[in-house]
Design goal:
- The chain is an alpha+beta fold and about 325 residues long.
- The chain is about 45% helix and about 15% strand.
- It contains twelve helices and nine strands.
- The strands form three sheets. It has a four-stranded antiparallel β-sheet.
- The chain is globular.
- It comes from Companilactobacillus nodensis DSM 19682 = JCM 14932 = NBRC 107160.
Length: about 325
């Protein structure tokens, strides 16, 4: 029987959502909207989130969130994808599909919230570890195999090269940088570098440069009063039409439409982005999260048992439906 070290590694944050902060990273990102109304944008797909909604964003997917109302507070957790390998998953050949806005009913949603609550407000290291592995186990239920999707973990040598390249691109994205110029930075051939970037980052070289430019464009559209054509040129677009098309492809709206959505309250939230919550928001968020804490009582069935029973019924029903579809 294989042995696994009980390593608990994650990054959690509760913060107020403002305007788009476009980003991507190699971790699994799980969002839980606590208060307000938020629009999530994942790879150009707009997903409206209401209080208590959960959304899992796969590694290296470009994404951003936008508050539709003031005081929209989110709990966000990052987990390394290889952490789920303990459940026998091959994180490099599949993806997760967890979106309560799309699939409203699933008996596993509340156990996920309970695990997040117990992870956030754990009593000791043992309860923290238990909540962490409970969460991993639950998330694994939403994993589907997809050979066309996924990335591989970099070797130390490749990781050093990738880090050097991404750092270079993030400093020079507004310039005209060809793949061959980039390859010279690490003494690789253009063909080899192209394959390496795709396997490690999950996106092509040109898409990475595009994301860097759009990331800066979002910042400038939010913070500055410069006109759109000037911003496009500053971030590396020499054709306004291409900038508008790229922006709409990634965010589902034009730069002009995005700017029209910005309100003073959003700008205020941006100035305090990922900083300490206001006293009211902090108290309300704590109350909401703690209301999902899993509390076991000797005089009543535990919530885990109840949810396990619901899960079994749900699985049985889905198997019956699949059997009917298969025979028709």
């Amino acid at each position: 029987m294989p042995e696994y070290q009980a390593t608990v590694t994650y990054d959690e944050l509760i913060y107020e959502i403002g305007s788009y902060h476009y980003n991507w990273h190699p971790d699994i990102e799980l969002l839980w909207l606590l208060t307000g109304e938020v629009e999530a944008n994942v790879e150009g797909e707009v997903i409206p989130l209401a209080p208590n909604d959960l959304l899992l964003i796969n590694p290296n997917c470009g994404h951003a969130t936008f508050a539709k109302v003031a005081n929209s507070v989110m709990l966000r957790i990052h987990i390394r994808p290889d952490a789920l390998d303990i459940n026998g998953l091959n994180h490099a050949s599949g993806k997760f599909q967890l979106n309560t806005a799309a699939e409203h009913v699933n008996p596993l949603y509340e156990p996920i919230r309970s695990s997040l609550a117990n992870l956030t407000y754990h009593d000791n290291q043992l309860s923290q570890t238990a909540a962490y592995f409970d969460l991993l186990n639950l998330l694994s239920k939403f994993y589907i195999t997809d050979e066309s999707y996924g990335t591989t973990l970099a070797t130390p040598k490749h990781q050093k090269a990738i880090s050097k390249l991404t750092e270079y691109l993030e400093q020079h994205f507004s310039e005209d940088i060809s793949l061959s110029m980039l390859a010279k930075q690490v003494n690789y051939s253009s063909t080899y570098l192209s394959k390496l970037l795709k396997s490690q980052l999950g996106i092509t070289y040109s898409e990475y440069v595009m994301r860097c430019r759009l990331q800066q464009a979002i910042r400038e559209l939010t913070r500055s009063t410069d006109n759109i054509s000037s911003i496009a040129y500053q971030v590396g677009f020499h054709d306004l039409k291409v900038f508008n098309q790229s922006f709409k492809k990634h965010f589902g709206m034009t730069p002009t439409a995005y700017r029209k959505q910005l309100t003073p309250s959003l700008v205020k939230s941006d100035n305090q982005f990922k900083q300490a919550l206001s006293s009211n928001n902090e108290q309300l968020s704590e109350k909401i999260v703690k209301s999902h804490l899993q509390v076991e009582n000797n005089n009543s069935p535990c919530r885990t048992c109840e949810f396990r029973e619901y899960q079994q019924k749900y699985t049985s029903l889905m198997n019956d439906l699949q059997s009917v579809v298969k025979h028709n």
